[in-house]
Amino acid sequence: MPIVSSSALIAAPVPAALFLPLAALLGVGLDRLCGEPRRWHPLVGFGVLAGAVERRLNVGGTRRLRGLLAWSLLVLPAFVLAAWSIPSGVPGWLLHVLLLYLALGGRSLGEHASRVADDLAAGDLLQARQHVGWMVSRQTDNLDAGGVASACVESTLENGNDAVFGALFWFALLGGPGALLYRLANTLDAMWGYRTHRFADFGWAAARLDDLLNFLPARLTALSYALCGRTRGALRCWRKQAAHWKSPNAGPVMAAGAGSLGVALGGAACYEGRLEERPPLGDGRAAGGQDIAQALALLRRSVWLWLAVLLCLGLAGA
Prior knowledge:
Elements: H1 6-10, H2 19-34, H3 42-57, H4 63-85, H5 89-103, H6 106-121, H7 125-133, H8 145-192, H9 204-227, H10 231-241, H11 250-261, E1 263-266, E2 269-271, E3 274-276, E4 280-281, E5 285-286, H12 290-317
Parallel strand pairs: 1-5
Antiparallel strand pairs: 1-4, 2-3
Helix pairs in contact: 2-5, 2-12, 3-4, 3-8, 4-8, 5-8, 6-7, 6-8, 6-12, 7-8, 8-9, 8-11, 8-12, 9-10, 9-11, 9-12, 10-11
């Protein structure tokens, strides 16, 4: 249930039971039409604040505890403030929609992936390497066209959960404050969740809490990919391959996505000068540039599936 009372919804512009599906539809629509704000995005200010907090607290001993304290100071007050300050009626309903919109990054993900696909279609491998490097953490300067396509498809599938479905899941549970909670936690994981000397301990809490918040959304995303593509292949790859991936949440998402598309992903990749042998994902042919568009289409179908499920649940409760 969203974190709003029934009385608050009585004055809303829609029946209480349809609050979630229509708010979700509007939030997704705003992201699709407008994308992320080009200027004055609140997450930019949050990132600056998080950087200042990290520099202040990521010193000395007990860094895991300090990292947990930093996460709590940055995320919990924002969540509580949003939960308790949203008014009733039309303004509150619109504020829930706004918080969801700000938590989504579907259009941005699509723009980045499409740029890589266009580069590959034009035969501009240098540009494709540069643009896919904005999406992934691996080294891209020596990738061939197939490696660029594979990296882009992997990122599109994995970030479909991070940029869209995770926020939708927590919006469905806790309304706009839930979407805000998820996006802030996901942002801190992106900033601190690395196994480097600087963040191995300090970022431990951010990484584990992000894993926790993504546990159910990731599996629902994997199921959505399976239902919206090659279902049997997706479920087979999920069952056989997901557990071998180092990330407990990316494994199901990427394995199911690869199986749904009928492509082979995973394999060796270079990180900070080290060649890392990663488990295979999928069981089809090697990914090509055309599969980037297919991955984006799979993502769009899955979004429509989520919105349809929310609408059916709302109608059932009306």
